[in-house]
């Protein structure tokens, strides 16, 4: 059950059997929307767009399990549209040096838009929990 006036976080980023969501949720002191579902439908996509717009924080966690880059595009988009409520967390383990260099450039772009960047789930949870 969602409490009124309680902080709510959109949990976006790498899916593809990544375990970051399961590790982050126990660290959070707030409500959240987890868009990961077994069967992705047009209704799920519509709900994701709604939640991105209404959540207090939009978080994108990028891990080396990612196969596509759409989550990075969403993070950049939200850093432009919702800079004060966007957080990008990049967990560098498993990325090549070239990928890390590219991701650091994305992080610089996002922070220059006024959004926040972290590189650990613990720092991410602390940043989010400091707003509750």
Oligomeric assembly: single chain
- What is the class in the CATH system? Alpha Beta
Main beta sheet: 5 strands, parallel
- Quickly count the helices: 5
Amino- and carboxy-terminal Cα gap: 17 Å
Stretches with pLDDT under 50, minimum 5 residues? none
User: Per CATH, which architecture?
Assistant: 3-Layer(aba) Sandwich
Helix content: 40-55%
Fraction of residues in β-strands: 15-25%
Summed up, the domain count is 1
Task: Please give the order of strands in the largest beta sheet.
Answer: 2-1-3-4-5
Question: What is this entry, summarized?
Answer:
This protein is 42% helix and 17% strand. It is an alpha/beta fold.
Quick tags:
132 residues; alpha/beta; Rossmann fold; five-stranded parallel sheet; 5 helices; 42% helix
């Amino acid at each position: 059950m969602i409490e009124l006036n309680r902080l709510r976080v959109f949990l976006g980023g790498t899916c593809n059997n990544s375990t970051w969501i399961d590790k982050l949720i126990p660290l959070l002191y707030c409500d959240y929307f987890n868009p990961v579902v077994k069967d992705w439908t047009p209704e799920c996509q519509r709900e994701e767009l709604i939640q991105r717009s209404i959540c207090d924080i939009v978080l994108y966690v990028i891990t080396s399990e990612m196969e596509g880059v759409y989550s990075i595009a969403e993070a950049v988009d939200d850093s432009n549209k919702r800079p004060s409520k966007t957080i990008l967390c990049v967990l560098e383990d498993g990325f090549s040096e070239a990928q890390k260099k590219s991701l650091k450039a994305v992080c610089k772009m996002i922070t220059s838009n006024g959004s926040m960047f972290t590189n650990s789930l613990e720092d991410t949870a602390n940043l989010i929990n400091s707003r509750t």
